[in-house]
Write a structure and sequence with these properties.
Number of helices: 17
CATH architecture of the largest domain: 3-Layer(aba) Sandwich
Number of domains: 2
Bound molecules: nicotinamide-adenine-dinucleotide
Helix content: 40-55%
Order of helices and strands: EHEHHEHEHEHEHEHEHHHHEHEHHHEHEE
Strand content: 5-15%
Radius of gyration: 28 Å
Length: 441
């Protein structure tokens, strides 16, 4: 393919050199004549291991060149890739002025581009932009400047960049996954041709989803680093080797380094997580170690319970049935169950509550479990519905708090006036009816 890449910075120059290596004809476009001149001379405009050799090879083979002439670059290419910077503004928002400018240039050039055997020009975004930016900024700017219609006269997609500076070339050729944000098959086929030769799992998602994935990745990395630092700080103060601790933590690929606990849903609870996080924060405090991430984690959990309560309130119904009360399926443990907390708040606000939980046998509760729940829900046995049908008949709002096959079956056909709040993601397809809502999905 003939490819024009806008922005010869960290992402653009690595992408350009690597795509040339894959056999494409690449023109790097930059407003900075110094960078363009360096590439012309076969030199890398940034410091990155292996890049000087690849740029020199690309230029001498004739597959890689550079220019400041955006128009010529677009007209000589099948695909234009946007790799310009998206820096932070003072208020933390993204500065999309470079993206707007480049879209304007690409749009004007596409309008002047002669028809080439029916194949439409493709615009691929690699710059990191907040979800909605392609739809809200890139597409309208391209359409306005070209007088053409996205999807009809040109196609557009996202190929988010996950490279890390210092190992950027290896990351380009060996990514953990390749994500394409595409709203149609034509752009997927362009992206496949472009990345042919890169062996990794391909995931095709909607454009907005691809935009969000990039942010989820970076937020996750930032949280991971901060988590390890907080554990390290506590360990150091307690004269423990935090590196050894984290190495062993990382060996658990079932619960720790795994998809476990990474599904958006309801708050955490139970007899361990809240208690142990509280104790760890208390210990850190006694050692004069700050734990802003762990402190915020408790507040974030609390706000998730609040979010569920607000969702119930918004339905406007006073009769509520909760399907599930213990802290997870398969246990009768009620200690610090966020569902108990939710029930307590609903009762406190005067909601008429019924609870059904197949794991709950009120007569058999003993010890700290019984103590906990009776301190929160004084008349639990009066709230508990003996059968699922009793709870389903009572509630105009049904809160699904736990997985239970019986509940799943019943939820396929709620009564038309019933509003379902699903905290466990049983029936995401049912969201379309407007009376079935998930929490954080
Ligand atoms: N650096 C990374 O490790 C990394 C990794 C993944 C994603 N990203 C994202 O990729 C994007 C680019 O990042 P970067 O670090 O390569 O930025 P950069 O600042 O190194 O490079 C941007 C380049 O765009 C050029 N430019 C600006 N306006 C232009 C225009 N109208 N036409 C042509 N060139 C123009 C600039 O002169 C500059 O050379 C950002 O959105 C960033 O968030 C960066």
């Amino acid at each position: 393919m003939q490819v024009s890449i806008f922005g010869a910075g960290y992402v653009g120059s690595v992408s350009g050199a690597c795509l040339a290596k894959l056999g494409h004809g690449v023109t790097l476009v930059d407003v900075d004549p110094h960078k363009v001149g360096m590439i012309h001379r076969g030199k890398a405009p940034i410091v990155e291991s292996g890049l000087p050799e690849m740029i020199a090879e690309g230029v001498s083979s004739g597959r890689l060149t550079a220019t400041t002439d955006a128009d010529a670059a677009v007209r000589g290419s099948d695909v234009s890739i946007i790799c310009v910077g998206t820096p932070s503004m003072a208020n933390g928002d993204l500065d999309l002025s470079y993206v707007r400018r480049v879209c304007q240039q690409i749009g004007e050039a596409i309008a002047r581009k002669p028809e080439t055997g029916g194949s439409r020009h493709a615009v691929v975004v690699r710059s990191t932009m907040l979800p909605g930016s392609v739809r809200g900024v890139v597409v309208p700017t391209l359409e306005k400047s070209s007088g053409l219609e996205a999807g009809r006269h040109f196609v557009i997609g996202i190929y988010p960049e996950f490279l890390r500076e210092s190992s950027a070339i290896d990351d380009f050729f060996n990514p953990a996954i390749t994500v394409f944000g595409a709203d149609g098959p034509e752009i997927v086929s362009v992206l496949r041709q472009l990345t042919h030769g890169i062996a990794s799992e391909e995931v095709v998602v909607a454009v907005q989803t691809a935009e969000a994935i990039k942010y989820a990745n970076n937020a996750w990395h930032a949280v991971k680093i901060t988590f390890a630092n907080e554990i390290g700080n506590i360990c150091k103060a307690a004269d423990i080797d935090g590196h050894e601790v984290m190495q062993v933590v990382c060996k658990d690929t079932r619960l720790n380094i795994s998809p476990a606990y990474l599904r958006p849903g309801f708050a955490f609870g139970g007899s361990c997580l809240p208690k142990d996080l509280r104790a760890l924060r208390r210990k850190a405090m006694s050692l004069d170690v700050a734990t802003p991430l762990f402190d915020a984690t408790m507040r974030a959990n609390e706000s998730q319970i609040r979010a569920a309560f607000d969702m119930v309130e918004r339905t406007g119904n006073r009769q509520v049935s909760m399907l599930g009360l213990t802290f997870k399926t398969g246990t009768d443990d009620l200690r610090e169950s966020p569902l108990v907390e939710l029930a307590e708040r609903l009762l406190g606000k005067g909601y008429e509550l019924k609870i059904y939980d197949q794991d709950l046998k009120t007569g058999m509760l003993i010890g700290s479990n019984l103590e906990y729940v009776t301190s929160r829900l004084h008349h639990l046995s009066e709230l508990v519905a003996p059968e699922l049908d009793d709870a389903l008949n009572h509630g105009k709002t049904i809160v699904v708090g736990k997985s239970d096959p019986e509940v799943r079956k019943a939820l396929i056909r709620p009564r038309p006036e019933q509003h379902v709040i699903d905290l466990v993601r049983y029936n995401p397809q049912m969201r379309t009816n407007g009376r079935y809502e998930g929490i954080c999905w």
